[in-house]
């Protein structure tokens, strides 16, 4: 027969392990995304308003970099789903405060993952076709435009995930007020950029508003991940 003490400590230990797993997933996701963006910066990734000839030359010369990025995406998308799913579970186990926000973050995170898959699939297609083309074709240009549009439409889903997770974590007592503010600011910037998704897909500097919001959310993820691992 189990002792009451042992029975009582089992849920606490399970919650502790779950919290550390969710925190580790948040940190790993943020780190892999940073590596991805550093790789794009190093290889000279082009803005969406770049001439299609330059786009073709970039993908023809950087097929290996695209392969590495694709591998990173294959790693960090499951980590994103682990984070939003695990966060929802933690919120429910802490009394349910913020459950609606965690559900919103979970739904938005799942949608975001699907859009990121599309963005990456199109990028792989660009890299594969670029090596066999002497000059851009209408089909190549169309894939580039769809890739840009998918990325632009990912911004509002990213902002919703950011706001939902920040509010849920704070409401359940997992994070302090300053982290809620950081998440709200980052998510709001992403949502604001998402309103101009057509302009962003056409190469507008408005994309930097979204990137600033994304950077704020990555900082939030790192801070939250460290807090969950230590708690």
UniProtKB/TrEMBL annotation:
Superkingdom classification of source: Bacteria
Transmembrane stretches, start-end: 21-46, 66-91, 103-126, 146-169, 181-200, 206-229
Key word Iron present: no
Key words, A-Z: Membrane, Transmembrane, Transmembrane helix
The protein, known as: DUF4386 family protein
Taxonomic lineage from the root: Bacteria, Bacillati, Actinomycetota, Actinomycetes, Micromonosporales
């Amino acid at each position: 027969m189990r002792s009451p003490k042992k029975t009582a400590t089992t849920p606490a230990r399970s919650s502790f392990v779950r919290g550390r797993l969710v925190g580790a997933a948040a940190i790993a996701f943020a780190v892999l995304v940073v590596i991805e963006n550093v790789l794009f910066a190093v290889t000279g990734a082009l803005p969406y308003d770049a001439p299609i000839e330059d786009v073709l030359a970039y993908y023809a010369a950087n097929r290996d970099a695209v392969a590495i990025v694709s591998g990173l995406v294959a790693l960090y998308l499951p980590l994103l789903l682990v984070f939003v799913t695990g966060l929802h579970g933690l919120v429910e186990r802490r009394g349910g405060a913020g459950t609606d926000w965690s559900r919103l973050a979970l739904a938005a995170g799942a949608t975001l993952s699907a859009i990121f898959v599309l963005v990456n699939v199109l990028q792989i297609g660009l890299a594969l076709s670029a090596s066999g083309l002497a000059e851009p074709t209408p089909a190549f240009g169309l894939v580039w435009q769809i890739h840009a549009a998918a990325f632009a439409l990912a911004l509002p889903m990213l902002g919703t995930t950011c706001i939902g997770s920040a509010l849920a974590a704070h409401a359940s007592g997992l994070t302090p007020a300053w982290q809620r503010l950081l998440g709200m600011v980052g998510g709001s910037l992403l949502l604001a950029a998402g309103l101009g998704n057509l302009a962003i897909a056409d190469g507008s500097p408005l994309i930097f508003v979204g990137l600033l919001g994304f950077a704020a959310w990555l900082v939030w993820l790192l801070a939250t991940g460290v807090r969950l691992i230590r708690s």
